Amino acid sequence: MTETTTTASPLEKTISLKLSVEKINAEVEKRLQKVARTARMPGFRPGKVPMKMVIQTYGPQVHSEVLNDEIGRTFNEEVQKQDLRVAGTPRIEAAEGAAEEALEFNAIFEVFPEVKFGDFAALEVEKTTVEVSDAEVDKTLDILRKQRATFAAVDRAAQDEDKVTLDFVGKIDGVAFAGGTADDFSFVVGKGQMLPEFEAAAKGMKTGETKTFPLSFPEDYHGKDVAGKTAEFDITIKSVEGAQLPELNEEFAKAMGIADGSIDKLREDVRVNLSREVNNRTKAQTKEAVMNALLKVAEFDVPKALIQSETAELAQRAREDLRARGMKDVENIQLPEDIFAAQAERRVRLGLIVSDLVKNNSLQAKPEQVRAYIEEQAQSYENPAEVMQWYFQDRARLADVEAVILEDNVVEYTLAKTKVVEKKLSFDELMGNK
């Protein structure tokens, strides 16, 4: 006999499970008989251990296994009978006052909520748009040229984009410190390769000039011996070299992978790559706007068990990130759960919303969508056919693609039902250059 009750939480339920003692004992005896056929103990041949000793040695473990199996089986039968969608793992507690012929337990668990949506038409969603113009293509070509710049000596003061070669000695309280001295050290001014005070000191100096200046190391500087301290540096400029950019010509185009050296083809190639990057970023911003809108239009309680599970997952990812950064003993680091709680709840809530929309509106990824997506991704590689094969030969990779398409379908579904406001950004704004 089973019984279902609802507790104080709208999503929390309790099922009373009554298990037959006779049935459990019969199954325990059956399993112990099986164990006895192969049991090994000192002084006895395999399979000849007295049953009493088998029961003493293996009885508690077998009884526990049978009890857990019977609880799980009875619980699963009941939730299927009542058509309950269980969220998380149930908590099993022994009930009081059970009869001699039966064991009684309470299974306490949460169920998935019913997602209720408000009026989509009342929502306003910003859709980000960005135009890739000739100016962006020109700017990108300039960047590519700068990346392939050569340097030649110039007779003037160092300025941004120049490469300076210098000797330097750093001292703290008049004493040189480890790592603070170098000869013939080179860096490009204005690239952020050195601390701002060091770059500022070198900028404006000519070959042969010397300078002494103070430099304050940040509190979080990677060199712990000097972090937070102020040093005095002596620098001597050995040379100043100006950048010499390659000409935008046939030779440059070939170096960039254009076989016939066509500048027009190079510009088109750059435009395609920029458009792909712009498309990815605008889609991401629009998706974020859609998800924020869905959070506003959907109302439901979130299972605590799912939030706890997601919180643990986020904490583990944080530890893995710290390990990747070289931190030791990350498993012993106590990460307060509350720092992940808000993010975990948002992720769970969005996951339930998306799942409901997909299920009730047939927004699953279709085979033709999967193929089109993979073909598009493959075009940015030298051998598209190999990339497509790489995707299609692995079910896990296809599942990742399907997940992306599924979310794209939800975004398109939402945009079709809401008021869409175009949010125009410049290329630099989208790329974070402003």
From TrEMBL:
MF-aspect GO terms: peptidyl-prolyl cis-trans isomerase activity
EC number: 5.2.1.8
Residue span, PpiC domain: 123-222
UniProt KW keywords: Cell cycle, Cell division, Chaperone, Cytoplasm, Isomerase, Rotamase
Main location (coarse class): cytoplasm
Domain of life: Bacteria
Top EC class of this enzyme: isomerase
Domain spans labelled PPIase FKBP-type: 161-246
Cellular localization per UniProt: Cytoplasm
Catalytic activity: [protein]-peptidylproline (omega=180) = [protein]-peptidylproline (omega=0)
Described function: Involved in protein export. Acts as a chaperone by maintaining the newly synthesized protein in an open conformation. Functions as a peptidyl-prolyl cis-trans isomerase.
NCBIfam families for this protein: tig (TIGR00115)
HAMAP family noted in UniProt: Trigger_factor_Tig
Written domain comment of the UniProt record: Consists of 3 domains; the N-terminus binds the ribosome, the middle domain has PPIase activity, while the C-terminus has intrinsic chaperone activity on its own.
Annotated family: Belongs to the FKBP-type PPIase family. Tig subfamily.
Protein name: Trigger factor
Taxonomic lineage from the root: Bacteria, Pseudomonadati, Pseudomonadota, Betaproteobacteria, Burkholderiales
